[in-house]
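Batch job 17 of 40 flagged for manual review because the log was empty.
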Amino acid sequence: MRILQASNIYGVAFGIPSISTLPKSSSQRHPTIAIPAGEALAKSVPIARKFSEQHSLKMGDMEKEGSSVVLEKKDFAVPRRKAMALIFSSFLLSNYELPKVAYAQSVEFREYIDTFDGYSFMYPRNWIQVRGAGADIFFRDPLVLDENLSVEISSPSSSKYKSVKDLGPPQEAGRGVLRQYLTEFMSTRLGVRRESSVLSTSSRVADDGKLYYEVEVNIKSYANNNELAVMPQDRVARLEWDRRYLSVLGVENNCLYELRIQTPEKVFVQEESDIRAIMDSFRVNKIAA
């Protein structure tokens, strides 16, 4: 940021010529007015002081654009240390408040309807669809890469589901969901350890009259910083990731449908209401013959 210097224009603005600004040619249009040095200095000092008082920096005269500070044209007399301190503090404040502002923004949803496979749900408008992820449908947050949702559908040829109660009570279904996640996240790396738990299980009847199960699990992944070290004290386990997995289970068309949502625990705390809205919107629909 550049601080404007007005010291070079004081003399011209107030009609106080200096030695460097006096014309040297004798063929000038206007006659040169000779002012004694002492008298010129005595007149220029109070005028300059008045100008400085009128244009001194005030906090109300600052404008902020993004992460920079813009001064208005009248803000000429600014001490360098104060200006740099203001710029630095505003930069830190803007960066510190950015995540809170981002989370505070309202989320717009779009509805995804799959008439061929028979399900629908709402998802954040800014999420992008990822193809080739292995699921029937997959959406991901473009800013938080560990946050995504997907839909899995069982094969009707391998099993015939009549109701979600075929999975047992919600607690038993929750244990099955956790086992499935741990199987998928199984790692062959040395020194990897997973901690998991079922946080909650519940059931609800939606406005379509169908029964749905909801399951929430937490999985933490730890890995050693030096898995090839011989001595145990040289292998220190560190947290790789801490995520929450939320599933909504429903049955229709002799198939088991599962809406999966993955999000980091620290993000879930900020976006819980939006994630609950996605879960509540999930519906399984009868496929027309």
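Reviewer: the log was empty due to a logging misconfiguration, but the result itself is present. The radius of gyration is 34 Å. Unflagging and moving on to job 18.
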